Structure formats: C-alpha cells, structure tokens
Amino acid sequence: MDGLLGLIIALLVFAAIIFLASRTARSIMFLGIALIVFAALVFFGVVG
Hints:
Helix content: over 70%
Distance between the termini: 11 Å
Low-confidence stretches: none
C-alpha cells in the first residue's frame, strides 16, 4: 500500500510540475527535472 501511495503522490507532483513548466519559458528544463524526480519517486516507491 505504501508503494501505491508513493506512486499517487509522485503522479500528483509530476502533474503539478508539468503544469508549472507549461507556464514558463524554461519548460524543457523543468520537464527534464520533473522526469528525473518522477522516475526517482517511482523507483523508491516500488523498491521501498
């Protein structure tokens, strides 16, 4: 259940970062950071 909760939180954070990135000029950089954070959260959520 903890892994599922972590995945849900990761998805919410990912969506929020994409929303913010779409409103800025540096969307590519923010999207790259978002992907890294998303992958890390999913990885630790699944492993943990």
